[in-house]
Amino acid sequence: MSTGLLKRFDPRRLAAHDGGTGGTLTGEVDTTLMPRLREALAGDEPATASFELRVFRDKARRLVIEGNVHAELACECQRCLEPVTVPVDAQFALAVVDDEEAARNLPVELDPLLLEQEAEVDLPALVEDELILALPQIPMHEDVADCGERARIVKVDEEFDDSTKKENPFAVLKKLKNGNTDRGK
What burial letters (b/e) apply to 26-38, b meaning 16+ CB within 10 Å? Predict the structure, then answer.
């Protein structure tokens, strides 16, 4: 099943698809539909996120959405503050729950997706959430050489004279401990 311009879907209905074995959704979502993600990106260039979702009921009869999303996103390099294209891939497994108690009782391999009865899943918001979670904490160019002028390492001035070493402030205590009471030297 393809999404086309699909923005919402009913996971219960999709899980019942094909005789109860579940269904899949594949497609692309434009980042212009993801305002929270756009705040984390550099520039205003829209990008496209591709996704594949599989919706089914597991052995415990939980409604599960498994999937992956991929996008090439323009982030701000934290070394040079210039744009860097970062590939973002996320794989996830969500269990649709209707309250926090059910969310607490999920196995560790499933994250909760709180959804009221008969409610539909907002597809762009779901893809946006997973991309935000998969964004690198500190996006950077892979090589410092790609960063340009701002990230050049400042060389130490060769004429710097380190011969003016300061005396250790605890040297006086060391002299007192060793029995040398001459405080002048």
Answer: ebbbebebbeebb
Q: Tell me, yes or no, whether 181 lies in a domain.
A: no
Residue type for position 142: E
Distance of alpha carbon 11 from the chain centroid: 25
pLDDT digits (tens, 9 = 90+) for 122-176: 899 999 999 999 998 888 887 777 676 655 543 334 455 555 667 787 878 888 8
- Whether 174 is in a domain gets the answer no
| Element containing residue 177 per DSSP (H, E) | helix 171-177
The phi and psi torsions of 149 (rounded to 5 degrees) equal -65, -35
Q: Which domain holds residue 63?
A: 8-149
| Cβ neighbours of residue 28 closer than 8 Å, sequence gap 6 or more | 3, 48, 49, 50, 51
User: Which of 78, 67, 83 has the alpha carbon at shortest distance from 134?
Assistant: 67
Instruction: Let me know if residue 74 belongs to a domain.
Output: yes
